[in-house]
Design a protein that fits this description.
This protein has about 230 residues and is mainly α. The chain has two domains: about 1-80, Arc Repressor Mutant, subunit A (Orthogonal Bundle); about 85-230, Four Helix Bundle (Hemerythrin (Met), subunit A), CATH 1.20.120.530. It is about 75% helix and about 5% strand. It has helices at about 1-35, 45-50, 55-70, 85-110, 115-135, 135-155, 160-180, 185-200, 205-230; strands at about 40-45, 70-75, 80. The longest helix has about 30 residues, at about 1-35. The protein is globular. The termini are far apart. The relative contact order is 0.12.
């Protein structure tokens, strides 16, 4: 009985450590994406543990996961170094996301969305409009990210959702850096609204065409933004 209790306690401890590692992973990744840790910045395990109020063990496990996903590099005896943004990576992510999101938009327009689903998309666009009216580019970036997440998460294809979500998180990291350097993104709001209207009408062809046109325009602007930011290949 004592041995079984010890085993149960050990499993409980392991579960608690895993949960703490998941929390550390989510918090550190969110800080990197939001730009709270700049590209090239170093942070010690102990500093991260103090910042997020946990022990070094879950932080260390979180850093291993983040290194595998190329958000950071592990630095012996120094914790982590935030990975630099690569122009090639940004272009490739944008290209792949364009295809996945177009497929998601086509799937949404091919089935009748529930009123609450359409309301969520409308609310995301309204948040983007309010942010531009208030000249709040940070709020606009968050609302734009939310819209793209909704577009993907509603499509119903679990594999597409999994892959696109990972890429959207990486794209959002660049969005937070690049939005102040780009033209005022009025056309993004208009195009997103037009995609939603095509989805509402059940018109998959138009939804895909508008989305692809939007992505082509952004790809042209992307090259200019990369040059302004001085991001190397």
């Amino acid at each position: 009985m004592i041995e079984k209790s010890a085993q149960n306690a050990s499993r409980s401890d392991l579960g608690a450590t895993a949960r703490q590692a998941d929390i550390a992973y989510a918090r550190i990744k969110a800080a990197v994406i939001r730009g709270e840790f700049a590209p090239g910045q170093n942070a010690l395990e102990q500093e991260l543990a103090l910042r997020f109020g946990m022990s070094r063990t879950p932080v260390r496990e979180a850093l291993v996961r983040l290194a595998q996903e190329r958000y950071i590099e592990l630095v012996p005896r120094r914790g982590m170094r935030v990975s630099q943004l690569s122009a090639r990576d940004i272009r490739e992510i944008n290209e792949v996301l364009g295809g996945l999101e177009a497929q998601a938009a086509e799937r949404l327009a091919s089935r009748k969305l529930a009123p609450e689903e359409l309301a969520q998309l409308d609310a995301a666009i309204a948040a983007m409009d309010r942010a531009l009216e208030n000249e709040d580019l940070t709020a606009w970036s968050e609302a734009d990210y939310h819209f793209h997440r909704l577009l993907v998460e509603m499509c119903g294809n679990r594999t597409l959702i999994g892959i696109a979500t990972q890429l959207l998180e990486k794209a959002h990291r660049f969005r937070m850096v690049s939005t102040p350097q780009r033209s005022r993104p009025v056309y993004s709001n208009a195009n997103h609204a037009a995609v939603v209207e095509a989805i509402r009408r059940g018109d998959p062809q138009t939804a895909v065409e508008i989305h692809r046109s939007h992505k082509r325009r952004w790809s042209r602007e992307l090259n200019e933004v990369l040059d302004r930011l001085g991001i190397d290949e």
